[in-house]
Write a structure and sequence with these properties.
With 187 residues, the chain is an all-alpha fold. It has one domain (45-182): Tetracycline Repressor, domain 2. It is built from nine helices and no strands. The chain is elongated.
């Protein structure tokens, strides 16, 4: 039994029951450990939650950062970032669910530790939008608001998207990018 096995199981338990509805006993049962044995690997649910959030943001920052740092026009990078982000959420539904819905369960100390990672991730998006504004590709009076709006649309997808649904995640990503770039108004 590894710490990664425990974190994988905990993400699944948190997704199914929510952080507050889950117990250390639930997590121990998910990995076939006695509760006391679980404490040899982790000290608390807070530690597990923070580790899961770190894992999720690390994965996303790596994947999105690779696109954001490409030598390409901002609109191309942003379109690809949307696709990579949605693919990452879809490929990791348990971890994504914890990141998007359970971060509010962090205690104050853990929350303080989590915020710089979240801000680093969000800065990747703001930087690309700012690049587009500087290059006169985008007209965006409030970059922060635009990024938060885009993130909100993409994050909410996790609540309804199904792998076996009628539309693949890549097509959803393209439609979101089109909506974000061109809006709803008929040209």
């Amino acid at each position: 039994m590894t710490r990664d096995d425990i974190l994988d199981a905990a993400a699944q338990v948190f997704r199914q029951k929510g952080f507050h509805g889950s117990s250390m006993s639930d997590i121990a049962a998910a990995v076939n450990l006695q509760k006391a044995s679980l404490y040899h690997h982790v000290s608390s649910k807070q530690e597990i939650l923070l580790a899961l959030l770190d894992r999720a943001l690390g994965l996303l920052t790596e994947r999105i950062g690779a696109v954001a740092n490409q030598d390409a026009p901002a609109d191309q990078k942003l379109r690809q970032m949307i696709k990579v982000y949605l693919q990452s959420l879809a490929e990791n539904p348990d971890l994504s669910s914890v990141l998007l819905f359970e971060h509010r369960s962090l205690d104050k100390k853990s929350h303080t530790r989590h915020i710089p990672n979240r801000d680093r991730f969000e800065r990747l998006w703001r930087d690309v939008v700012n690049q587009g504004v500087s290059a006169k590709i985008f007209a965006c009076p409030d970059v922060g608001l635009a990024v938060r709006g885009l993130m909100g649309i993409m994050n909410w997808t996790l609540t309804w998207y199904r792998l076996d649904g009628p539309m693949p995640i890549e097509k959803i990503a393209d439609q979101y990018a089109d909506l974000f770039f061109y809006g709803l108004l008929k040209k």
